[in-house]
UniProtKB/TrEMBL annotation, chain A:
Xref: InterPro entries: Prenyl_trans_a
Protein name: Protein farnesyltransferase/geranylgeranyltransferase type-1 subunit alpha
Molecular function per GO: CAAX-protein geranylgeranyltransferase activity; protein farnesyltransferase activity
Oligomeric form and interacting partners: Heterodimer of FNTA and FNTB (farnesyltransferase). Heterodimer of FNTA and PGGT1B (geranylgeranyltransferase).
Cofactor field: Mg(2+)
Taxon lineage: Eukaryota, Metazoa, Chordata, Craniata, Vertebrata
Catalytic activity: geranylgeranyl diphosphate + L-cysteinyl-[protein] = S-geranylgeranyl-L-cysteinyl-[protein] + diphosphate; L-cysteinyl-[protein] + (2E,6E)-farnesyl diphosphate = S-(2E,6E)-farnesyl-L-cysteinyl-[protein] + diphosphate
Role noted for this protein: Essential subunit of both the farnesyltransferase and the geranylgeranyltransferase complex. Contributes to the transfer of a farnesyl or geranylgeranyl moiety from farnesyl or geranylgeranyl diphosphate to a cysteine at the fourth position from the C-terminus of several proteins having the C-terminal sequence Cys-aliphatic-aliphatic-X. May positively regulate neuromuscular junction development downstream of MUSK via its function in RAC1 prenylation and activation.
Residue ranges of the TM segments: none
Similarity-based family: Belongs to the protein prenyltransferase subunit alpha family.
Compositionally biased tracts (Basic and acidic residues): 13-29, 357-368
Record bears the keyword Magnesium: yes
Organism per entry: Xiphophorus maculatus (Southern platyfish)
Enzyme Commission identifier(s): 2.5.1.58, 2.5.1.59
Automatic annotation (TrEMBL), chain B:
Domain Prenyltransferase alpha-alpha toroid: 16-341
InterPro entries for this protein: GGTase_I_beta, PGGT1B-like, Prenyltrans, Terpenoid_cyclase/PrenylTrfase
Cofactor needs: Zn(2+); Mg(2+)
Keywords assigned: Magnesium, Metal-binding, Prenyltransferase, Repeat, Transferase, Zinc
GO molecular function, one term: metal ion binding
GO cellular component terms, A-Z: CAAX-protein geranylgeranyltransferase complex
UniProt protein name: Geranylgeranyl transferase type-1 subunit beta
Enzyme class: transferase
Length: 368, 367
């Protein structure tokens, strides 16, 4: 490909409209450099003249081809040239910023930039500023968060992280990348102290933020743990309070159940009564499902225990009533599922002993 | 004059715009505008969405298989003469690094050339869909390249240079080993440990330990365990029932990926297929699921979007079709829920694997 400049009368604007395949010999006019803010293609930059650009070779029959503009192809043709040489230079570092600007999802560019950050002993504080800006623009990109994590590790300095992540979450409180990064920072650098407060503030803003509930569980399980009955009581109370404010909130119910399910839902003193009270005024499919799970847990404990036969029968009856209520009225979208659960429960715990009925019935639903 | 029942069925048939979707995928296979630049390094996976989508639509005849197969093989990282790059093996997403086009070895040594685990997975699937016999896949290099990606904790990187590591790439690794019928590329027990460690308090899987449970990562967890043949070994009946509950609660009309998030077409597959693997998809509400998926159908350009009145993209177009296939939409081929290819392509794989076993057996017999 020729690197000799030739005068051209074509203005910049028209160039942008041209065919996607980079044409050999496209050049700017001889007023090169007159306007320092005007973008100059790499192939027209004197300081890059020593490098032979490397076009992307998709072969004779490319598939899922992306139609790149001249500007885009030019940057990446030079990126490929640098890669091939494994050049470690300031100009290479500067080019990676252009390449990222065009496609921040190109993981090879990010990797190469990290190689250069090390090889050239670049200022990592500056890099933190750079990556902060990029993440703010593209907060759902995997590569940018990974890059940030690498820089934080190299600096061994997480001091800006919690605030930064809080900023990102203030724009999207459920951004999975942000939460993941936050968990990593907290766990790696032991920054647990204020996290429960942070979570509570988020839940005050939006009690239905499932990510915040998850973070609550994360913080407590890694700090006080859930063994202390006082903690469990506190958390049960917290859940019930939030449920009173917003009854139709699966996150709160999942948290309550998740915390208690391995100890036996039916063995938590006084809980069943509280749930039955709530049922009258703050009912939801989640409350009823929780009740069902309590009854199922009780059935498991009282199964085939002689002095509990009557109680067992009554619990089974209540559980089956809940299934019917969910299937027919309160959670009809899952009608088939609740009926299936009812059948399974009856089969397992039915007073007449296990029947011959299949617990996994044949397809009960026709395809539409 | 059709009966009332037939008229209703006809209306439903008309609503699903098969030909538009075929054309959507055909266009995807040709040229995408520059605003799709962020897909450059994952083009092979986009190819997979289009090919598998056409397969589900039973429309693969519009594809020039030979041409596609050559392009896919040109993405394979070929071993150099001295095999010094074996542990960079696998398939690239595209030739963005600047390797010259080649489908035959020996490979060219390049300081930054390596496979990407998700591209190896979708590359192998794409070859199977096109009826290729995988004979040009360098299994030694693919498995060597895979092995170096697994961390101590059982999760995988995407590339040997390093990247984020999580459960998605365990799924890709398990699929690769499953297809090649060779599990030497990964430590299964460590992978299971990581998967179990990702099980959240609310009975589904996050991307790693402590993280929020999510429909996509739950699919990766369950599908991986199924491919490994370890579902019942890794998870107790009680745990499986709890996971079933979490998954089935994701249905709102279509499905969402996390509690209190909006529904999104792709979860009709991620969560739907998980429910199918757990034998309870039959208890979901087919009509509401179908109505939602079709509400995201683009009637003009074809394909599906994540939400109604949004732009369609290849991923949602493909997974929307898979979601419809799960509920038995007429004229759509059935999809293998763990491997995410049609049952037809899966049968082709099974035949291939039988041939490999037979050949291995006959070699032993000759000794």
């Amino acid at each position: 490909m020729s690197t000799v400049e030739e005068p051209s009368s074509e203005p910049l604007g028209v160039k942008e409209q041209k065919e996607l395949d980079a044409e050999v010999g496209d050049h700017f006019g001889d007023n090169y450099g007159a306007d320092p803010t005007r973008y100059i293609l790499y192939r027209d930059r004197k300081e890059w003249a020593d490098l032979e650009p490397v076009p992307q070779d998709d072969g004779p029959n490319p598939v899922v081809k992306i139609a790149y503009s001249d500007k885009f192809a030019d940057v990446y043709d030079y990126f490929r040239a640098l890669l091939k040489k494994d050049e470690k230079s300031e100009r290479a570092f500067a080019l990676t910023a252009d390449a990222i600007d065009l496609n921040a999802a190109n993981y090879t560019v990010w990797h190469y930039r990290r190689v250069l950050l090390q090889a050239l002993s670049k200022d990592l504080r500056e890099e933190m500023k750079y990556i902060t800006n990029i993440i703010e623009e593209q907060p759902k990109n995997y590569q940018v968060w990974h890059h940030r994590r690498m820089v934080v590790e190299w600096l061994n300095d997480p001091s800006a992280e919690l605030q930064f992540i809080a900023d990102v979450l203030s724009q999207d409180a459920k951004n999975y990348h942000a939460w993941q990064h936050r968990q990593w920072v907290i766990q790696e650098y032991k920054l647990w102290d204020n996290e429960l407060d942070f979570v509570e503030n988020l839940l005050d803003e939006d009690v239905r933020n499932n990510s915040a509930w998850n973070q609550r569980h994360f913080v407590i399980s890694h700090t006080t743990g859930f063994s202390d009955p006082a903690i469990v009581q506190r958390e049960i109370q917290y859940c019930l309070n939030q449920i009173r404010k917003a009854p139709h909130n699966e996150s709160a119910w999942n948290y309550l159940k998740g915390m208690l399910q391995d100890r036996g839902l039916s063995s938590q003193p006084g809980l069943l009564e509280k749930i039955l009270e709530l049922k009258e005024t703050h009912c939801s499919p989640y409350l009823l499902a929780f009740l069902f799970d309590c009854y199922e847990d009780a059935l498991e404990s009282s199964f085939q225990k002689e002095n509990l036969e009557q109680e067992h029968k009554e619990t089974l009856k209540k559980a089956l009533e809940i299934c019917e209520l969910l299937a027919q009225e309160k959670d009809t979208i899952r009608k088939e599922y609740w009926q299936f659960l009812g059948r399974s429960l009856k089969n397992k715990y039915g007073g007449d002993g296990p029947s011959n009925e299949e617990t996994k019935p044949a397809d009960t639903q026709e395809a539409s | 004059m059709a009966e009332e029942e037939n008229q209703f069925e006809e209306f439903e048939q008309i609503d699903f715009l098969r030909d538009r979707h075929v054309r959507f995928f055909q266009r995807t296979l040709q040229v995408l505008p520059e605003r799709y630049a962020s897909l450059e390094t994952t083009r092979l996976s986009i190819l997979f969405f289009a090919l598998s989508g056409l397969d589900v639509l039973d429309a693969l005849e519009v594809v020039d298989s030979k041409v596609m197969i050559e392009w896919i093989y040109s993405q394979q990282v070929l071993p150099t003469q001295d095999k010094s790059n074996l542990n960079r093996g696998g398939f690239r997403g595209s030739a963005h690094i600047g390797i010259p086009y080649s489908t035959k070895g020996p490979g060219v040594l390049h300081p930054y050339d390596s496979g990407h685990v998700a591209m190896t997975y979708t590359g192998l699937c794409s070859l199977l869909i096109l009826g290729d016999d995988l004979s040009r896949v360098n299994k030694e290099a693919v498995l060597a390249g895979l092995k170096v990606l697994q961390l101590e904790d059982g999760s995988f990187y995407a590339v040997p240079e390093g990247s984020e590591n999580d459960i998605r790439f365990i799924y890709c690794a398990a699929s690769i080993c499953y297809m090649l019928d060779d599990w030497s590329g990964m430590d299964i027990q460590k992978a299971i440990d990581y998967i179990r460690g990702s099980l959240s308090y609310d009975n589904a899987f996050g991307q790693g330990a402590g993280r929020e449970s999510h429909g996509g990562w739950t699919y990766c967890a369950i599908a991986s365990l199924c491919l490994m043949g370890r579902l019942d070994e890794a998870l107790s009946p009680r745990e499986l029932n709890r996971i079933r509950r979490w998954c089935i609660m994701r249905q709102q009309s279509g499905f969402h990926g996390r509690p209190n998030k909006p529904v999104d077409t792709c979860y009709s597959f991620w969560v739907g297929a998980t429910l199918e693997l757990l034998d309870v998809f039959q208890f979901t509400h087919f009509e509401k699921n179908r109505s939602f998926i079709l509400s995201t159908q683009d009637r003009l350009v074809g394909g599906f979007a994540k939400w109604p009145d949004s732009h369609p993209d290849p991923l949602h177009a493909y997974l929307g079709l898979c979601g419809l296939s799960l509920i038995g939409e007429p004229d759509l081929k059935k999809v293998h829920p763990a491997l995410n290819i049609t049952q037809r392509a899966f049968q082709h794989l099974q035949q291939l694997q039988q041939t490999w076993r037979d050949n291995a057996g006959s070699c032993v017999g000759q000794q």
